[in-house]
Structures are given as structure tokens and as C-alpha cells.
Amino acid sequence: MDRDALADFLRRRRAELRPDDVGLPAGARRRVPGLQREEVAQLAAMSADYYTRLEQRRGPQPSTQMLGSLARALRLTGDERDYLYRVCGHSAPDRVSGSHVAPALLRVMDRLVDTPAMVLGPLGETLVQNDPARALFGDASQLSGMERSAIYRWFVHPEQERWRYPEEDHERQGRAQVASLRAAHGAAGAGSPAAEMVAVLQARSPEFARLWEAHEVSRRFEDHKVLIHPEIGPIEVDCQALFTEDASQVLLVLTAPPRSEADSRLRLLAVLGTQRLVDEHPDLPRG
């Protein structure tokens, strides 16, 4: 691990960002340009002391999970992300894995403060989400492995995942999940994480195996659906999708017509937060 190179790299990337670049309020006038250390730590979900030690060449070797969080917080490009891993003594992750969130999608999501938005990977795994999305779907950062995939959870943990949708919509949602995985499997091929997930789901879910045999293929995310919040109730939303150029990631945004009842309910999500949602459903997967 090259602590000198890491510290210099972090300081320079931090100095290049402004609060509004990452969805933070500008606040009072700043003595120096760029983000504060505490703000980077907040964005990366780490302690300010830990991040400060990295910039002061005193920190331990960060884990790959921590580096992924830093790459997202600092809005690093793919090349910058790879460099960050290497100066910390790790191999750069495979770019097709979808673990590194495209900075362009993050910039758009940063500006969606009152609207549920999230970036999904090729297997339906939530890579990053804003506060309204956490309030609606739960905090996906607590999940790991295949549990991060909504496709996997839909079939392996139906009692924990499907309550967010009206029962009459379960069949349609299940078919859409399988069709999306079929598209990802076709693009990635044998030996890929998509193929591994297919094998696991075929073994664990007869419902998935039945739907898989239908050979439906679709990557569409545009949709009109009803989502159920345990306190707010049903919310009718329109789903819009913005893909990266290689279609490996998608920014999913949930909206409702202005001044509608659904729009008012969406605005309540930021007020309620996520804590009461977790308390209401203690059986939600936590990772």
C-alpha cells in the first residue's frame, strides 16, 4: 500500500468537488474550495476520523468494500477507481461486475432530493439509493452477495420482498424479474454471476424454474405500478430509467403527477425516513 500516493490522491479529488456536485447543501462560505473531510466521510458511510487518517498517511489498508464506497463518494471515473484500488494494494475489480457506479448516473441522482431514485446493476442489485428510496424500499447497503439483488430476493424471500406490491401484481412482477435476468444472462454468458444466480434460483424456487422456461427477455424498466408503504399506504408511481452507454447500469426514478395524492405521499417519504420502516418489518433481510 502506497500511503503517500493514496493521501495525495484523496486530497486532490476532494478539492475538485463542490457540495452541489454530490447533492450536499453549500452551507456557509468556505475558506478553501472543495469538500470537507467530514463530508467525504459522510458520503462514504465511514467515520471522519478514519478518513482523516487516510489523508494523513496514518490509516490502515482500506478494505475493497471501503474503497468502493470512497470511489462513489468522490465520484471517481473507472480509471480513477482502478488507480485507487491499486495504490491501496488491491487488484482493480472487473469493470463488468457493475460494482462501480457510473459518475454520470450519480450526478443525476444527486439532484433528485425529494424523488425516490436508485442505481441498479445488471442483476437488479441496488448499488446506491437516495433517502426517499431507502424510506420506500429499505436500506440496501445492509445487504451483501446475492441478497443485494431484488430478483434473488423476490424468489428466495417472497414473504420479505413481495409485501411492497399488491398481491394481484405479483405474477407480473415475477415475470418481469425473470425476463430481466434472462437478458443479463444472455449478455454475460456461461460462468458469469448471472449464470450462477440462475442456477441457484432454479434449485431453490420452483416458481422461478417455471418462469425461466418461458424464455421471456426484457430489460424495460419504464412502468406504472403501485408500491405499498406500511405507514403511508399504496403509492401509484411511474418508473423511468436512464441507462449507461453500455446498458450495464440503470438509474431508476419513481415519480407521480404533480399535486396528485401519490405525489404528496412520495414527499412524505423524506419526512418519515427509514427507521420506522425497519421497526415495522423486523424480518426484512439485513445482509
TrEMBL record:
UniProt GO molecular function: DNA binding
Transmembrane segments: none
Entry-linked InterPro entries: Cro/C1-type_HTH, Lambda_DNA-bd_dom_sf, MLTR_LBD
Gene3D superfamilies from the UniProt entry: 3.30.450.180, lambda repressor-like DNA-binding domains
A Pfam family this chain is assigned to: MLTR_LBD
PROSITE patterns listed in its UniProt record: HTH_CROC1
Record-linked SMART domains: HTH_XRE
Domain HTH cro/C1-type: 34-81
Origin superkingdom: Bacteria
Protein name: Helix-turn-helix domain-containing protein
